[in-house]
Amino acid sequence: MTKLPPVFSVLLLSIIGFPSLAWPSEPQPVERLIQQAKIKNIHEDPYWLALGHYQRRYLGGYKSDVFSKDFFLSEHGRNNPEEELKATIEGLFQELDSDSGNNPNLHAQCRFIARFNWLKNSLDWSGVNLPKIDCEGFRKWSFDGGVESVSLIFATGYLGNPASFFGHPLLKFNLSRKKVPSFLFDTSVNYGAITPPQENPFVYAFKGLMGGYTATFSHRNFFYNTHNYSENELRDMWEYELNLSPDEVNQILWHTWELLGKNFSYYFLADNCASRMAEHMELVLGVNLLPDYVPWAIPYTLFDSLAHEKKKDGTPIVKRFSYIPSRQARLREKYLSLSEPEIDAVHAIVADNEELDQNKFVSLSENHRSRVIETLMDYYEFRTIGMTEDGAFKKIKARLLAERIKLPAMKWDLKNSAATSPHDGQRAVLTGVSAVRSEKFKSGFEFRLRPAYYDFLALDAGRPAASSVGIFDFTFAFTDKKIRLKKLDFISVETLNISQTGLPADGGYAWKLGLGLEPQDQACTSCSIFKVEVGFGKAFRVFDDQIFFTMLDGRIQTSAQDSGHLALTPNIGTLLDISNGWKMINKIGYRMYLDGTATREPILSSENRFGTWRDWDIRLTYERHVDNQAKVSLNYYW
Amino acid sequence: MRIAILLLLALIAVPTPSYASKNIWTQCGIGAMIFRETGWAAAISNIIWDLGTTASSSASSSEDQCAGKQASAAKFINVAYSNIEEEIVIGEGAHLDAMLDILGCDAAARPEIISGIRTDFSKTLSDPSYSARTHVQKSEAFYNDLMENVTVKYGKHCS
Fold first, then answer.
1. Phi/psi of residue A565, nearest 5 degrees
2. Structure confidence at residue A389 (pLDDT)
């Protein structure tokens, strides 16, 4: 054996003994990917920021809207998207070990499936071997690839609850009908605040506005939602099935999985159900569903955008609309489909102690009797809402069931509902300009801005009928070369609660609630008062689309020119749908102050809306309240 | 005495049917799932009843005894009982279909199954005490009758 010179021996030893000194080492796959991510700066990619719900802070840096610790893999992940990205890559490589209880569902690959898939597409993974993890929890939750499409559901507004005036969105994963035949067992995902069951309404309003509630995403079978909204709260639902590719469906599904049970702060006006669902859909749609320049978010705007905007590839966002009528809507549909003798039988049974041996009923054929019974089943089920278990309507419902089962099984093919989709109505934000002529001020102009939502004269579409909901409704007057805030309704809600069937309890008392600033009367300036006004009354349908109502309004107000603080205003009015493009509301009232020196004042108003356009309308208004005033307005909705 | 012992043994040996509602109704808290009240906080908080099943726990819920087919049927019947009872007397409807879907009943056998359910339900309705029962009592009794039928009469049509 040839002996090596000493210098070679030393070199050889150094190569064997200190390989890292001899050649630069190949970086580990995890380090290589982190390096790639750093070079590509992908932690600033909008998709990564969206997955982490990061918001840019005014003073620089980021902060995630999510505050659950288990949403982040890095200790500083909430404020540092780069650290979080690095920790995510590292997490994907971890082997299952006893630290995670050997639970694959707790592995980063299974907890952050959207992140994982996005990273797979954003970095070069060639030659990388990841641990193979079976995400059993996700597979089961998503029915092993059984989700075929995604819908957003709009539960229309509910005037029984101030927080529901504006409706509510839900996400629904539509499952393969081979795996889950009924849509009632589709998976729905809700984003909502966690509130105590019996919260004080003032605390509720304050905390809701100020972000005092924690909100989270949760999932259920869809039948819980149909029960809650359609049966309990009598809210119609509209389904917007989205036009998404299988990959886009998966992206929504994966990210939903990441978000389930994670906590956000809920702000009733801005960071609410509408904004969070919009953000969720924007992940794949590539368009803004809510305008950036509007500091509030309402569900209606989200659905309007879904229906009218296009995806980034120019195709429609929605591929199918469908209607899920509430119990009350079903009752009305059935009732309005009945023949005269059937209607007579319905009223006879309701009027006469709910007995089924009425001549008007027993004289009908089997087919007609079954239609009467089915209408009454809806009616009495509707009447049990809010009642205790021993409610009086259970007996009649049981009698109806027993009577109906004696008749042959048969399907009643109802004509398609006349309900109009929400997105066919006018948009929520109104800006208007009016030319005004009054006895006292002669000519002038008014400008109006109402951020939301609709009024009695709006097109009827996906909103409670014969009602009005407005918030922060400003009117500025420009007269005598001066501009002044004439009126500001902080909130104004009014419903005529009209019955469509004429059956007892279908409909109820008309009511109103208003809170805001307004002039003491039309003749004065610098006479702004703050008022809280409530009213109760009753509305009647005189002809098909003509409503007559009578109300008694009571108000507490600040005094202007010693007007008084308390007043009552009995008034009567009509809401007339004269033709497709002409709707009118008229009121005659008489305000009586209970204190102060203001005289009794007649108040008259008539407002007419012309046009059936979604984006704008023309209105003619006459008002008499001390001064006479007429105006023509052009309103633009956006 | 021998007969008594045999009877006792038979009672012990005969297992409780797997669909028996007692466990499902109590252990899965089904009776408490019905919600008809709408409070101030309902609109933004209809999540309250969701929390128990949110994904933070769903990852480990695969073995959940309340997640099986029969438990799903029981929960559905309890929530949608009013719709189901109406659809039975009418003879068709989305809830009735959904219920039979969960139980894996063949489409071809549905008319026969529904006819059988109508016949049984007719007897239930003829009981004068029916209207006095609570919602939970009605839905639990219906579930038991249904499962009896599905396993005994229509076993070959429902998986």
1. -110, -20
2. 58
Q: What is the DSSP string of B31-58?
A: GG-------GGGTT-TTGGGGGGSHHHH
Tokens standing for A409? 């099984």
Pick A409's closest partner by Cβ from B49, B91, B125. Answer: B91
The continuous run of DSSP H or E covering A368 comes out as helix A366-383
State how far the Cα of A453 lies from the Cα of B116, in Å rounded to an integer. Answer: 51
Structure tokens at A593: 């102050």
Mean pLDDT, chain A, as a whole number? 89
pLDDT category at B20 given cuts 50, 70, 90 is low
Q: Classify residue A309 as left (phi > 0), alpha (psi -120 to 50) or beta.
A: beta
User: pTM for the complete prediction?
Assistant: 0.86
pLDDT tens per residue across span A311-348:
988 999 999 999 999 998 999 999 999 999 999 999 99
DSSP helix/strand/coil, B2: helix
Tell me the CB-side half-sphere exposure of residue A551, using CA atoms within 13 A.
28
Residues 343-402, chain A: which have Cβ within 8 Å of B? Answer: 370, 374, 377, 381, 385-386, 389, 394-395, 397-399, 401-402
Beta-strand runs (E) in A222-364: 237-242, 263-266, 318-324
- Answer yes or no: CATH 3.30.70 is held by domain A142-324: no
Nearest to A233 among B38, B89, B98 (CB): B38
Rounded CA separation A342/A373 (Å):
10
Residues with Cβ within 8 Å of A379's Cβ and at least 6 positions away in sequence, in order, are A331, A346, A350, A501, A503, A506
CA distance A460 to A464: 8
Domain boundaries, given as residue ranges, for chain A? 27-131, 142-324, 340-406, 426-637
Q: How many CA atoms lie within 13 A of A32 on its CB side?
A: 13
Q: Which residues contact A230 (CB under 8 A, 6 or more apart)?
A: A236, A237, A324, A325, A326, A327
- Collapsing DSSP to helix, strand or coil, A186 comes out as coil
Locate the chain A residue with the closest alpha carbon to B46.
Answer: A192
Is residue A71 within 8 angstroms of chain B, CB to CB? no
- Segment A422-427 shows an average pLDDT of 90
The dotted CATH code for A426-637 is 2.40.160.40
Q: Given a cut of 50, is residue B83 above it in pLDDT?
A: yes
Give me the interface pTM, i.e. the ipTM: 0.84
- Within this chain, domains A142-324 and A426-637 share the same CATH topology: no
Identify which of A539-548, A602-611, B2-11 has the greatest average pLDDT.
Answer: A602-611
